[in-house]
Amino acid sequence: MGADGRRALGGVIGLAVLLLAGCTDGGPTEAIRSYEVDLVAGADGSLQVEETIAYDFADEERHGIERLIPERAPFEQTQDRLYPISDVVVESPTGAPADTEVTSEDGVLTVRVGDEDTEVTGRHTYVLSYRVEGVADPGDGGDRLAWNAVGTGWGVPIDQVDVRLTGPAGAVAGDCAVGADDVRTACPVDLTAGGELRARATGLAPGEGVTVSGTYPPGTFAGAEPVLEETFSPAQAFRATPVTAGLAVGGFLALVVPSLLRARRGRPGRVAEPSAPQLTPPYDARPAQLGTVLDGRAQRHEVVATLLDLAVHGQLRIEEADPADADDAEPDEGPDADEEEEAVPSDWRLVRTPADPRGLRPYEQQLLDDVFADGDVVLLSDLQSRFAGVQSRACAAMYRDVVERGWFRADPAAVRRRWYGIGTGVLVAGVVGTIVLAVTTTWALAGIGIVLAGLVLLGLAGRMPQRTPEGAEVHERAAAFRDQLATSDGSWSADADQLADLAGAARTDLRVRYLPHAVALGVAEEWTTAVQAAGPSATPTWYVPAHGSGYVGVWPALLAFSSPENPALSPPATAGSGSTYVGGAAGGGGGGSW
Question: In the predicted model, what is the mean pLDDT of residues 274-302?
């Protein structure tokens, strides 16, 4: 064989070795090969349990196994249900060390089996037996006994589980559930002629368990009663006395009264009502400025209103990307023409124009630069992942703008954050103080005043930003302008000289011009309804519908674009679930090796 042939053969052999190496696993791992549980219920509601566990240590060197069994479970708000365990005995038919150490802590009984000086490998069998009190639940419709035969605390897989439940009388029904805490399915259950219940499950993964329950004729466990333990007594901890009530009221008033006075100063002062309707934006203010002054908050609808206002001023163009059902739509033709005209797109394209940016407010320039950070054309849905950041920076710039205009004494968002922090601190202090007092004294009622004060401060935080006298006047006039937009048909006009900076139809049609103001002031739907009824004379030049520039039924689409819930900007919601028990029964727990 030549050198080339030897090299080729060597490559094939090397590849085969790599493939075989990739197909091998890391060798056998720990597992429980079989788990047999024999349950014998007594008429007093107790349960004699015998667990036969065939534990495979594989090649691991361990001392033995550890079994954890719950002895306590929440029952009611002030009570726990106890499952006292006694007579613990462990044997090993395979000769493994069966030295047993039993400890109880935090409601869990730990049974450690093995010898710390001896290590074992391979497969060994352990038989654990113990008695549990207070398991059965008598009831008028039938007595029930449920037991988590295999708990979800085992950290190794279990190949096979066999459970047998015998009672003082024959069971009339039985159930079996297998799975993890949050997902469980039914497993096969057999009832013998004598009323013995047998269940089987196979292929349990780590963290999965098995719960069995049997229903018996009424009176089967006539003498059984749950073992309950009081855990907390609110009646004693929150006992009302003149001292505790006085401290609660005094602490509440001391914290709340000064804050109420501060919040009252933050409310807009009353000014004389305008003698005539407010037909134009007061102080020639931009939409986002009026929206922020009106409620003291810069939010998503102010950002969307600013995008529309920038389009009105010719700084960008809005184009429909893929309107619903617009492929074959012919306006005003056929019985479904009205529905076609009402179709709205699911996405839009924003196109930046070469317009002169002089005269833009800093927050407008900030928004333009952020939206078009990747180019002069952007799909609205492509902004979804980063729109939260775009909105946050634009809103921060809006807050700075209204402070610079002299309408607020300080940044409203910063003022609210400070007071939310104060309220949270008072609330946490009150809760912690109340808990400490409840656990150690009967004065817990005194702490409730601090808790309530913290809640009131959190409620007042939104009213803490203070407007200046000029800001209070802008607030009143903005509210009057909002009311005018909400109730008017939008048919008035304005001096064309004042509209020279506007684009296209907005110069002569104030229904177009004031759409951004309606969005920012929260009356977009009312304004759109009014202008639709009046019928706009032309499509705005800054808006390009899929039907063509001559199509005038664009107002539903503009309303959809302006909505704060625009799906093109809102990511889908996620959901989760959780649970705490496999089958809602006693017992369970888990274990492993040590």
Answer: 86
First to last CA, the chain: 57
Instruction: State the pLDDT confidence band at 352, using cuts at 50, 70 and 90.
Output: very high
DSSP-assigned letter for residue 313: T
Q: Are 551 and 331 in contact (CB under 8 A)?
A: yes
Q: Cα separation of 49 and 198, whole Å?
A: 14
Please say if the pLDDT value at position 575 is more than 70.
no
Between CA 355 and CA 504 the distance in angstroms is 13
pLDDT tens digits, residue range 127-140? 999 999 999 999 88
Tell me which of 454 and 269 has the higher pLDDT. 454
Give the global pTM: 0.51
- Rounded to an integer, what distance in angstroms lies between the CA atom of residue 102 and that of residue 448? 43
- The answer to whether residue 7 scores a pLDDT higher than 60 is no
Q: Which pLDDT value is given to residue 479?
A: 92
| Helix, strand or coil, per DSSP, at residue 94 | coil
490, 524 Cβ separation under 8 angstroms: no
In this prediction, residue 26 carries a pLDDT of: 58
Q: Cα separation of 97 and 124, whole Å?
A: 10
Task: Say what the pLDDT of residue 23 is.
Answer: 41
Judged by phi (left if over 0) then psi (alpha if -120 to 50, else beta), residue 186 lies in: beta
Query: Which residues lie below 8 Å from residue 284, measured CB to CB, with a gap of 6+?
Result: none
The tokens of 451 are what?
A: 């808790």
Tokens 């699911």 found at? 346
Q: What is the pLDDT of residue 485?
A: 87
Confidence at residue 405, expressed as pLDDT on a 0 to 100 scale: 92
For residues 140-162, average pLDDT = 93
Q: Which two tokens stand for residue 220?
A: 């089967």
Q: What is the rounded distance in angstroms from the CA atom of residue 479 to the CA atom of residue 473?
A: 10
What is the band of 8 on the pLDDT scale with cuts at 50, 70, 90? very low
Q: Which two tokens stand for residue 53?
A: 């566990």
Name which of 196, 158, 191, 214 is nearest 586 in CA terms. 214
CA distance 469 to 409: 10
Fill in the DSSP letter of residue 205: P
Q: Are 225 and 45 contacting, i.e. CB atoms less than 8 angstroms apart?
A: yes
**Tokens 């009057």 sit at which residue?**
480
**Residue-by-residue DSSP string for 210-274:** EEEEEEE-TTTTTT---EEEE---HHHHT---HHHHHHHHHHHHHHHHHHHHHHHHHSPPP-PPP
CA distance 366 to 360: 10
Q: Which two tokens stand for residue 516?
A: 């951004």
Based on its alpha-carbon atoms, the radius of gyration of the chain, rounded to whole angstroms, reads: 37
**What tokens does 122 get?**
């391979």
Q: How many CA atoms lie within 13 A of 443 on its CB side?
A: 13
**Pair 564, 28: CB distance under 8 Å:** no
Angle (CA) 159-164-170 rounded to 5° is 155
Cα dist from 534 to 509, 528, 529, 538, 549, whole Å: 11, 10, 9, 12, 19
Q: Rounded to an integer, what distance in angstroms lies between the CA atom of residue 331 and that of residue 396?
A: 43
Residues 22 and 91: their CA atoms lie apart, in Å, by 41
